[in-house]
Amino acid sequence: MDVSVDIMADNTIVLRKDVQEKIDELGEADLLVGIPSYNNSRTIGHVVRAVQAGLSKYFPDQRSVLVNSDGGSSDGTMDVVRNTTVDFDSILLRHRVRSIHKIITPYHGIPGKGSAFRTIFEIAKALDVKACAVVDSDLRSITPEWIELLISPVLNAGYDYVAPYYHRHKYDGTITNTIVYPLTRALYGKRIRQPIGGDFGLSNRLATYLLTKDVWETDVARFGIDIWMTTTAVANDFNVCQAFLGAKIHDPKEPATDLSAMLHQVVGSVFNLMEEYSEVWQRVKASEPVPTFGFVYSVGLEPIKVNLDGMINKFRLGVKELTTVYESFLPGELMWFLASVVEKPKEEFSIPDNVWVEIIYSFAVACHKKLMSQEHILKSLTPLYLGKVASFVIETWESTAEEVEQRLEDLCMAFEREKPYLIERWREEEHGE
Question: 73: domain range?
């Protein structure tokens, strides 16, 4: 079997021979659901069953294809996908008209979720599908309704991009809550609550457009693909919405663990996109809600462990060790504030929103002006981020989920209010000041 892959001049990839034969056999399809995977044999069976059930229940008349794009799993992930079926009689009131086809293939290119997406989008383009969805392979909370909610806005309402909207524990997704959501909302003017959610729907038009972008051999394909897709859709005026999917239950991480690399990757992607779409976001004056599909309801959530003392200690140590780094790009009043908060006891520990916004905008400007390597700048953000999360935890320990969401709305408005400060500092170099 030919397993080679080539990059063509028009930035498309040549799919494996067996995949191309399957595409030729199918000719075309209406819907495609992609599942990127890497060693997910323990969880992917549930995801495959939910996808099959969702397609059968909500789109029985459509020609549907499930694509598993795998990164070279050694635990039998692809075998699980191949062998997983669902008892349609138990979920359907009427017989499904069309069968669901499966395409299971390793992806090629640099390791990462983006390379898996690329293969999925190439297959969607080749089959000329009407709508496409992608879901994570480690979800424990996915239901058949997710498939309907991610695909219907594209298929029936003309949307190009459907972002996920989940309820999460108040201390889960802290990078999204304290940086990525408020920053991207202030920059591009759309209130997409989960801009780096791993599950989404998109049109063939958007999938084909994404394939033309020259990112698939870069770090975007290794990490940062979710925020890249959201930002690309918004900045290029594709029709965007979000769909409420209930709870996102996955293997939760305590906010201080496995952090520096992820922060570097995600925030670095946001800052790099700021360069590409500088003219776009500088024109945006305020934010607006995006249409939300699905019935928003309260959900039970698994608790997240928080090591508050550990986060504060890492903040204090980081500020002391990285003072010379911070002094090279943080304003003097911020340096004074950081020096003062380091000395405060835990009960008085607080990083106000306006201070945090100025910190993030200063980091963005430092990367823009290349005051030192982006890696050094972003890695020095970790202790300050932990300090902001610790401050947020102290402030909201007794708060309900609804109260926390309102608290995050206040943070978002602070980012929007201070945006002129960002634009002024961003332009200083351009105007030779």
Answer: 17-293
